[in-house]
Amino acid sequence: MFYSLARALLFRLDPEKAHNLTLRSLNVLHGLGLAGLFGAHCAARPRTVMGLEFPNPVGLAAGLDKDGACIDALAALGFGFIEIGTVTPRPQPGNPQPRLFRLPQANAIINRMGFNNLGVDNLVANVKRAKYRGILGINIGKNFDTPIENAADDYLIGLRKVYEHASYVTVNISSPNTKNLRQLQQSDELENLLGRLKEEQQRLAQQHGKTVPLVLKIAPDLDVTQVIAIADLLLKYQFDGVIATNTTLARNGVEGLPNAAETGGLSGAPVRIKSTTVVKQLSLALEGRIPIIGVGGILNAFDAREKMTAGASLVQVYTGFIYRGPELIGEICRELA
């Protein structure tokens, strides 16, 4: 009830202003000890994935809290794990505004944010201040002006900076809003990137006395041959997990709607089938050897169950959370009990 009223007010605002206001308001509520009153009441449904114990299988996808400025308040809402970022080595403003658009008739969002963030050092400082001690994923990317042939250097910087502060680290090569980024999903470039990251993970594990899992986040706009090629490389380099999927460049299901012609990545209900298809293809190719986190178009408990049936071990929400609020977390937890 409360979130429905809040959403009605927030949806009267520009989407990016509403987003920023929501995060500030959550922090205020948390400071007053009230954020938990609006959270989902999820009974513990622990499961071990990537050697980590998740209290429940419903996570927050990266993108909502890019700078890790709202970790404690978001944790109070009932998530089993939280992923922050995408963060880049250097601060960057992202793409020009407006860059975030709602498509409420389709329970969807289009964004072309462009990895706007205050840089990895700022994010690390925020993580150090947070009291949250649950599962925290940190999503890393490259700066927009780093040449694609030097992209691995940015990912290595990010990995080194966040390693000791993360429960797992996600390598985001699938945002459609940074020029040429998805080129890194091609076999030769991906092999170089995964190999260098795995080597660095092993070095950092010795340095810090712990192994922090590495996870790759891929796009829904891949054909089965590409998915299989990526799966083969994940197995070759013994990556610890894969997130399927990011947003889509396709516009299936939103044709003719207001804002549908805006450029950027489409998320929400229209990407559900594409995302689930990639989860199924990965599951077949990986044969259970690497866990999958399913994300994309999860608007209700049925959608979450669909991802799990397709082969996911955990799920993440983002657009569904924008449209449904904390109620969605509890609904999924009960379905997956």
Topology pattern, helix = H, strand = E: HHEEEHEEEHEHEHEHEEHEHEHH
Rounded to the nearest angstrom, the distance between the terminal CA atoms is 24 Å
Main sheet attributes: strand count, strand direction, barrel closure? 8 strands, parallel, barrel
**Overall pLDDT score:** 96
What's the architecture in CATH terms? Alpha-Beta Barrel
CATH first level = Alpha Beta
Roughly what fraction of the amino acids lie in strands? 15-25%
Oligomer: single chain
Structural class assignment? alpha/beta
CATH 4th-level superfamily: Aldolase class I
User: How many domains would you count in the coordinates?
Assistant: 1
Q: Helical percent range?
A: 25-40%
Globular, elongated, flat, extended or rod-shaped: what is the shape? Answer: globular
Q: How many individual helices?
A: 11
Strand order of the largest sheet: 3-4-7-8-9-10-12-13
CATH topology: TIM Barrel
Q: What is the alpha-carbon Rg in Å?
A: 18 Å
Question: Residue ranges: pLDDT <50 for 5 or more in a row?
Answer: none
